[in-house]
Amino acid sequence: MASSSNYDGILLGMGNPLLDISAVVDDEFLTKYDIKLNNAILAEEKHLPMYDEMSSKFNVEYIAGGATQNSIKVAQWMLQTPGVTSYMGSIGKDKYGEAMKKDATAAGVNVHYYEDESAPTGTCGVCVVGGERSLIANLSAANCYKVDHLKQPENWALVEKAKFYYIAGFFLTVSPESIQLVSEHAAANNKVFTMNLSAPFICEFFKDVQEKFLPYMDFVFGNETEARTFSKVHGWETEDVEQIAIKISQLPKATGTYKRTTVITQGADPVVVAEDGKVKKYPVIPLPKEKLVDTNGAGDAFVGGFMSQLVKEKSIEECVKAGCYASNVVIQRSGCTYPEKPDFN
């Protein structure tokens, strides 16, 4: 890589930092709490007893998570140069928050958390059955992020320094004002702004705010379920992921600096990339079922790998390759974790 200073803080993420409370559960548990695999939702009243029940009934692991934070950490790991990535979000003043800060800093990410005085650090229940995951997020402090934190000079400096931005769709529910400032800055300065569809509920219930920022998105990431939900919500009447990817890429843009690229992952099926009205498909690295630990963080890791090459201005093919490599590593481990060094070239 060129001198690290060129890349210093080149990628900035904003999102909900959550501590994953992860366990292999059973179908009975899924039914009891009305949980669907391969889904992500916000916790409701009925889910709140779930976290304690998980830790009493099952073998629970606590892993630093949060979709955007996962992606940023993976990009950082792939790049192997401390401080090339930065991250902002809100944590509580508690042991979980401290653990998260320690974890992200050890990973080499420059974290500027807002620390909320009253709410505890957010958690995410990760229920795994047969390697498939379902996420139930209790945002707590993560929900308390305020645009005032972003506007503080030492934090806005991270926005100024970055040339690429990644924000998971989950942050749309927390601070649209912050997303607006960052997306407008990116557009005005010819920088690259990227987001993720993130979950069916975002496409359904946060459609208006998602649509507000779509014109700013140079890259849209998502998986096949989210893409189909997006299509349904927009009345497109197609389940064809390739068609949906093309349609998303052709939605209006705020500026003409970059064409929009849509990148849709489909689990073990090929990655669909749409740009210029055309689709390319890239196979993922095959993994025997017995090597799958859990899919938690697979999509996040894909984005992290992808972004690690995008910031180096590599081809889309290289970006996808890196994304597939990173997600292949992560699904063979619990949560969004990885070995000390990547083995990618």
UniProtKB/TrEMBL annotation:
Residues 29-339 form the Carbohydrate kinase PfkB domain. Its cofactor is Mg(2+). The keyword Manganese does not apply. Pathway: Purine metabolism; AMP biosynthesis via salvage pathway; AMP from adenosine: step 1/1. One of its GO terms (molecular function) is kinase activity. It catalyses: adenosine + ATP = AMP + ADP + H(+). It is an enzyme of class 2 (transferase). The keyword Transmembrane helix does not apply. Keywords: ATP-binding, Kinase, Magnesium, Nucleotide-binding, Purine salvage, Transferase. Gene3D superfamilies: 3.30.1110.10, 3.40.1190.20. ATP dependent phosphorylation of adenosine and other related nucleoside analogs to monophosphate derivatives. Belongs to the carbohydrate kinase PfkB family. This is Adenosine kinase. It comes from Camelina sativa (False flax). The gene is LOC104768498.
